[in-house]
Amino acid sequence: MYKLYDFLPSGNSYKVRLLLNLLNIDYERIDVNILNQETRTPEFLAKNPNGRIPLLEIASGKFIVESNAILYYLSQGTKYFPQDKYAQAQVMQWLFFEQYSHEPFIATARYWIAILKQPEKNPEQLKYKHRLGNAALKVMEQHLSSHNYFVGETYTIADISLYAYTHVADEGGFDLKKYPLIIAWLKRIKEHPQHILISDRGK
Amino acid sequence: MYKLYDFLPSGNSYKVRLLLNLLNIDYERIDVNILNQETRTPEFLAKNPNGRIPLLEIASGKFIVESNAILYYLSQGTKYFPQDKYAQAQVMQWLFFEQYSHEPFIATARYWIAILKQPEKNPEQLKYKHRLGNAALKVMEQHLSSHNYFVGETYTIADISLYAYTHVADEGGFDLKKYPLIIAWLKRIKEHPQHILISDRGK
Questions:
Q1: How confident is the model over B42-54, as pLDDT tens digits?
Q2: Cβ(B47)–Cβ(B23) under 8 Å?
């Protein structure tokens, strides 16, 4: 059985938990508290030298790290990854957009404010995170003006990846009311009958 | 014929130019000077609302952005992308490592120092970039202690992606002499008979 090394409040971990649940895949969840440096122990670094969760153990000693790489692995051959080659490239482009232009700003602002509870520590940096995070949300809002989902008008791992931190962006001080198309898309994702919440451990 | 919207000093652009040359694919190269805000014109933003190069136009009005997504697209069915599903996931994990834990520090330090020529502008931020960039280089050095390439002992797009900014890390103030296994790997990549330099426009 898959083992997911998971930190419940992490949007990156949630992506994997959500897809595993959508695919009805059983897994064992192992809590790793990043606030206690549990990703920096020799045992954990032997599994991921980059010291980050989520980490999926697919067989004894066979690990996959990087949330979007895990989504890619799990979605192959399922309806959450398209068949068409150009559509596949578009999924990839949104996954890289998420990790480069979205997560470092939206997730980090939430981490400082809602998890570390230290919004005042880096006021200049927080302003910068809000500026670039809003730029990413604008790109998403514009895309959703002519699409219901991010690629090919069906729910793919591009949506899962972007959903993870967008749906809790308000916890990082982002005002989602400025993005009505994003709000409608979040609702669409949440309506999936097998949807789970970020705080839900899954099965 | 493919059209590559390209900025010659950009490592992200170089990844695509290098793979196109390794694959003997003809393309038209279109210079986009990011220093003159040429990625922020209405014409360019209509192609990529996120306003970044490289951008590959594969047919009239069909665009792919995000350097690693373009590498993925071009490498499908070639020897630069493995067949095995776990090896594919490992390629993905290095591509996301590159964009999240490597490029934002190593490429940005080089951009400030060697391209904008303003190393003194953000001394505290530059120190931070050097700390995290060196952490990424250490992860690579450790991996290379038991591998010749990043995945499956052959040259894949994971190597291309990591090569792009690692081989010019010294321009960002990184001391590669501290990483002898990386130096040996860079040499291995450069020895490919169809290798091109970052300053080379290709065919």
A1: 999 999 999 999 9
A2: no
Partner residue facing A139 (CB), from B49, B76, B95: B49
B156 lies in a domain? yes
Same domain, A61 and A99: no
Phi, psi of A81 (to 5 degrees): -130, 125
Q: How many domains does chain A have?
A: 2
Q: Which residue of A has its CA nearest to B103?
A: A100
How confident is the prediction for chain B on average, in pLDDT? 96
Q: Which two tokens stand for residue B6?
A: 């390209």
ipTM for the predicted complex: 0.97
How far away is chain A from the Cα of B87, in angstroms, using its nearest Cα?
10
Beta strands in B51-123 (DSSP E): 55-59, 62-65
Tell me the C-alpha distance between A40 and B198, whole Å: 36
pTM: 0.97
Is residue A80 in some structural domain? no
| Residue percentage of chain A with pLDDT more than 90 | 95
Output the six-digit token pair for A137. 């949300």
Beta bridge partners, B6, equal B31
- Smallest CA–CA distance from B143 into chain A, residue: A49
